[in-house]
Amino acid sequence: MSYDLAFWQENQEIDASEAFRKYDAMTDGASGVFTESENVRAFHRALRDIHPDLTIENAEMSPWTSPVYGNGECVLVTIAWSRKDELVEGLIPLARKHGLLTYDPQQEEVHQQPPQLLKPPRTDQ
């Protein structure tokens, strides 16, 4: 059993139903759902520094049940159920530090910066 989270940049406040619509489109393979962002790339790098991606060599110790997906628009993680509390507690603040929204499809929750802190996505590389 696993626990999924999605991370992306929004420059305006969105509710859980809008986040689900975007998440659903993205997980169905749609591209261009989000704007590519350096913030997303930086978050993906920071995430891999803390928890390296799933490999055959680290499968027993990894918190992931499948490789972390990142495409510059979003990052998707599939967390081992036994590690979900530990990782969710750390990943939401890490995403906020990078100016990203966290969508939790199991709880149908959006964790986002307060509206006054939302900024347009950085697109510089």
Description:
The protein is an alpha+beta fold and 125 residues long. Helices cover 31% and strands 18% of the residues. The chain has helices at residues 16-27, 38-50, 84-97, and strands at residues 2-8, 69-70, 74-80, 101-104, 109-111. The chain has a five-stranded antiparallel sheet, with helices on both faces. It starts with a strand and ends in a 14-residue tail after the last strand.
User: Regions with pLDDT < 50 over 5+ consecutive residues?
Assistant: none
Strand-pairing-aware structural class: alpha+beta
Strand content: 15-25%
**Major beta sheet, strand line-up:** 2-3-1-4-5
Largest sheet: 5 strands, antiparallel
Task: Give the gist of this structure.
The protein has 125 residues and is α+β, with helices and mostly antiparallel strands. The protein is built from 3 helices and 5 strands.
Descriptive labels:
alpha+beta; 3 helices; 125 residues; five-stranded antiparallel β-sheet; 5 strands
Q: Which helices and strands appear, and what pairs or packs with what?
A:
Blueprint: E1 2-8, H1 16-27, H2 38-50, E2 69-70, E3 74-80, H3 84-97, E4 101-104, E5 109-111
Antiparallel strand pairs: 1-3, 1-4, 2-3, 4-5
